C-alpha cells in the first residue's frame, strides 16, 4: 500500500488571482515581508500495490486528471505503508 | 436539423438551450444524458452551461471523462458543429478539443451581466449571420472565464482567425480579450457568454439567436440539396 501526497500549483508563468488577493490581504495585516503567495491543491491518494510501477501510475493519474498541464504543475511524495 | 443538448449532473443552462432551439429557432432538439453511447442521430451538439460535477477539481475536468464525450469527439471529427457555452467551453478546453485553459476571474468575483462582444470572424459555422466587426450584446455568468494559453498558441489562434468573439470591455482578465474561439477545422466553438440567454428582445437581447440561425444556414448549405 502506498500513501501518495500530490501538490498541484499554477505554473510560474500563470498569474494566480487568488494568490494575489491573499498577498494583498497579508500586506494589509502588516506583513510587508510577504513577497508572494501561490495557492494550490493538496491531495492524498491511497494506492494499492499492483504489477505497475508506482511512479508510472501516479504520473499518469496526475497528467490525465489531477492537474491540467496547460496551466498547472504537480509534484508528489510517495510513502510506503502497511495496509490497515 | 436535429440538435442534441448534452446534460451532465450539475448542468443548469440545458433548459434555456432547449428553449432557444425549440421555441425560438424552431428546430428539433433532444436532451441527451451524459452516459449515452451514440450521437449519430444528431446534426449538431450543444454543451450547455452550469456546474457539471460541481466543478470539482477544475471546471469541466470530470465531465470530460463522461461516456458521451467519446461520441462528441467522434462528432467533431466527422465535422458536425459543436457549440460549448460557459461550462461547455470549459469542458471543450479540458478535453483538448480547443486549446488553452480557464483561470479564476481576475476580480475573483462571479460575474453575471450583459456584455458587448465584437464579432472577430463571421466566416464560421456559427457566425455567418453577423457582420464582421459587429458589436453584439450577450450575457455572461461565470466565475472562471479568464482564458489563458501560451504565446505560441495565441499566435496560432490569431493567424488562423480562430478568435471568433472578443470582449469590448474585458470583464474577467481573459488573454487578448478572448470571449470565444473555434478549432482549426472551424466546427467546434467554445464561448463564455450565453447566446441561448439572448434569443428574444424580452430577455434584453436577441443577438444570440443569429448564432443558432447561422448554424442552421451553414448546415443547409452543406447538406441539403437545393438549399
Quick overview:
The complex is a heterodimer of chains A (84) and B (227). Chain A has two helices and three strands; from the N terminus they run E-H-E-H-E. Chain A has helices spanning 17-28, 54-66, and strands spanning 2-10, 40-47, 72-80.
- Strands ordered across the widest β-sheet of chain A: 2-1-3
How far is the first residue's CA from the last residue's CA of chain B?
Answer: 13 Å
Major sheet size, sense and barrel closure of chain B: 9 strands, mixed
Number of helices of chain B: 5
- Rg of chain A is 17 Å
CATH level 3 topology of chain B: Rossmann fold
Q: In terms of per-residue confidence, which ranges of chain A show pLDDT below 50 for 5 or more consecutive residues?
A: none
Unreliable runs of chain B: none
| Main sheet strand line-up of chain B | 2-1-3-4-11-10-9-6-7
- Do you know the CATH architecture of the domain at 2-14 and 40-80 in chain A? 2-Layer Sandwich
Describe this structure as you would to a colleague:
The complex is a heterodimer of chains A (84) and B (227). Helix content of chain A is 30%, strand content 31%. Chain A is of the alpha+beta class. With 227 residues, chain B is of the alpha/beta class. Chain B has one domain: Class I glutamine amidotransferase (GATase) domain (Rossmann fold, 3-Layer(aba) Sandwich), CATH 3.40.50.880. Chain B is built from five helices and eleven strands; from the N terminus they run βαββαβαββββαβββα. Chain B has helices spanning 14-25, 67-77, 87-95, 151-159, 209-223, and strands at 2-7, 28-33, 44-47, 82-85, 101-103, 111-119, 135-142, 146-148, 163-167, 178-182, 188-191. In chain B, the strands form two sheets. Chain B has a nine-stranded mixed beta sheet with strand order 2-1-3-4-11-10-9-6-7, with helices on both faces. A two-stranded antiparallel sheet of chain B has the order 5-8. Chain B is globular and about 45 Å long.
